[in-house]
Amino acid sequence: MSDGHSYTLTRTLDAPAAAVYRAWTTPDAYARWAYAAPGSVRMDVRPGGAWQAIMVTPDGTEVPLTGSYLEVEENRLLVVGMDVPGRAEPSVMVVELDGDGPKTRIELRQICDTVEERDMAEQGSTMLLDSLTRFLAEGPTA
């Protein structure tokens, strides 16, 4: 992985860490902000637990995704493995939360195999953070 191409995205969100964590780990909430088809998200949020979702691209294409949780620390850390067809090892994204009262600093990190893969992943993660920011601004999550 050290030969890979990485990116790191950081934002400060106007929501407590618990609300940000719930947005990432509650299937209905996640589907509302993460471009997932309603009812397609399944999450077993624990180390070794599986997740799946059908993401919907802006042109309406449905992309099924699967993976597992590698590390979980409630309201603090999610290390998510994403299955990649044709690869033995998952692609790994780290979601780190640092809550300070009503605000949370979120950091997303990922190491990719190629510059092209990194650029696509970084663009997708930026879209996710934009959508998460809007979702949290709408009010408390369930």
Q: What does this molecule look like?
A:
- This protein has a domain at 5-29 and 69-137: START domain (Alpha-D-Glucose-1,6-Bisphosphate, Chain A, domain 4, 2-Layer Sandwich), CATH 3.30.530.20.
- It has 3 helices and 7 strands.
- It has helices at 17-25, 27-33, 115-137, and strands at 5-13, 42-43, 50-56, 62-73, 77-82, 91-100, 103-112.
- A 7-stranded antiparallel sheet has the order 1-7-6-5-4-3-2, covered by helices on one side.
- A hairpin with a 6-residue loop joins strand 2 (42-43) and strand 3 (50-56).
- It starts with a strand and ends in a 5-residue tail after the last helix.
- The mean pLDDT is 92.
Structure keywords:
142 residues, alpha+beta, Alpha-D-Glucose-1,6-Bisphosphate, Chain A, domain 4, 7-stranded antiparallel beta sheet, 3 helices, globular
Task: Return the CATH architecture of the domain at 5-29 and 69-137.
Answer: 2-Layer Sandwich
- Radius of gyration over C-alpha positions, nearest whole angstrom: 14 Å
- Helix/strand order: EHHEEEEEEH
The percent range for helix content is 25-40%
**β-strand number:** 7
Question: N-to-C terminal Cα separation, in Å?
Answer: 37 Å
How many distinct helices?
A: 3
Biggest sheet statistics? 7 strands, antiparallel
Q: Which overall shape is indicated by the principal axes computed on the Cα atoms?
A: globular
Widest sheet, order of strands: 1-7-6-5-4-3-2
- The name of the CATH topology of the domain at 5-29 and 69-137 is Alpha-D-Glucose-1,6-Bisphosphate, Chain A, domain 4
**Which structural class do you get from the secondary structure elements?**
alpha+beta
Name the average pLDDT.
92
The percentage of residues in β strands lies in 35-45%
CATH superfamily of the domain at 5-29 and 69-137: START domain
Mind telling me the CATH class of the domain at 5-29 and 69-137?
A: Alpha Beta
The parts where pLDDT drops under 50 for at least 5 residues are none
